Amino acid sequence: MLPLDGLGLIAASGPEARGFLQSQLSNDAKLISASQGQLSGYCSPKGRLLAVFTVIQLADDDFALILPAALTTSTLKRLKMFVLRSKLVLRDASSELPALGLIGERASAALDRLGFSVPATDYGTARHEGCWLLRRPGPVPRFELRGSSERLSALKAALPLPTATATDWALAELLAGIPQVTAETVEHFVPQTIDLDRAGGVSFTKGCYPGQEIVARVHYLGRVKQRLHLAGCDSHAPPGAPVFTSEPGSQAIGELMATAPLATGGYGLSFALQLDQAGRSDLRLGATDGPAIGRPQRVHPET
Q1: Is 278 a domain residue?
Q2: What is the C-alpha separation between 295 and 278, in angstroms, rounded?
Q3: In what order do the strands lie in the sheet with 242-245?
Q4: Is the four-CA dihedral 147, 153, 158, 164 of positive or negative sign?
Q5: Are 197 and 182 in contact (CB under 8 A)?
Q6: Could you say which of 105, 134, 164 is where a domain stops?
Q7: pTM of the predicted protein model
Q8: What is the CA radius of gyration of the chain?
Q9: Which residues, given as ranges, of the chain have pLDDT below 50?
Q10: Range of the domain at 208
């Protein structure tokens, strides 16, 4: 159990909130319900990701867009530019609905004892006594629990779970292959480059949104040159760091998306990598003579 202070929340409220999200985000907002959220991207007109959200429904005309706290202000400002005469209000609700993270095999049973209907699907949601529960993807059970600070404090005291760390959470997100955009990588990635489509965050049937034409062209013409990969390394670097081969003078063949410390030492890396270079064993982080990266593995294999 840990506070998820690194997450922000943008609330979209009003009778036209769902339609607004449908017009702006990469996934089909019509499929969001009181029991099922979704992953979705927010693109520039050039099809490059400005943010990746987890979107959940708080009430009939009330939605929450969960994203890194560092991107909340800039993303909210941009979204507001396109509200125009739509009947909705966008606001930063991060302090209204802070989040508590629950991770581990005991989390489901503990929530069940408190009366929550524990979601079984990725991004499944449930509401109980003024709190919202969201299930995160991955092999280890993980949940976001959101509510007022007072309500979360009471629930925290009633949950007999060990303390977890931000490192535990970050590693679980990385190993689950959840696409991420940080302040360092805004407008760096087309959705397919970091597997947002493979992770269920892109609809190719929903209609228009910013960048949709480019994202669709990449999909239908089969021109995905990079995909998300995982590997280990003895060192780490900030998101956006280039990935090279060891050949002197070679060009970058990938870009770092995220890192997290491993329990066994070293770091796990998730990075976009050119598919025609994925079989190499001489990858380097940051420079051609940088730290060696282990053999990469696809996060979401081709189906």
Answers
A1: yes
A2: 8
A3: 283-285, 242-245, 254-261, 267-274, 226-233, 297-298
A4: positive
A5: no
A6: 164
A7: 0.95
A8: 19
A9: none
A10: 183-298
Examine the domain organization and report whether 39 and 94 are in the same domain: yes
Burial 106-139 (b: 16+ CB within 10 A, else e): ebbebbeeeebebbeebbbbbbeeebbbbbbbbe
Neighbour-count burial of 247, counting CB atoms closer than 10 A to its CB (0-12 exposed, 13-18 middle, 19+ buried): exposed
Domain boundary at 102, 131, 164, which?
164
pLDDT, tens digit, 9 for 90 and up, residues 115-130: 999 999 999 999 999 9
Exposed e or buried b per residue across 256-271, where buried means at least 16 C-beta atoms within 10 angstroms of its C-beta: bbbbbeeeeeebbbbb
| 191 within a domain of the structure (yes/no) | yes
**Residue recorded with tokens 């696409």:** 179
What confidence score (pLDDT) does residue 282 get? 95
**How confident is the model over 203-234, as pLDDT tens digits?**
999 989 999 999 999 988 877 899 999 999 99
Which residues have CB under 8 Å from 285's CB, separation 6+? Answer: 233, 235, 236, 237, 241, 243, 244, 256, 269, 291, 292, 293
Q: Which residues contact 205 (CB under 8 A, 6 or more apart)?
A: 28
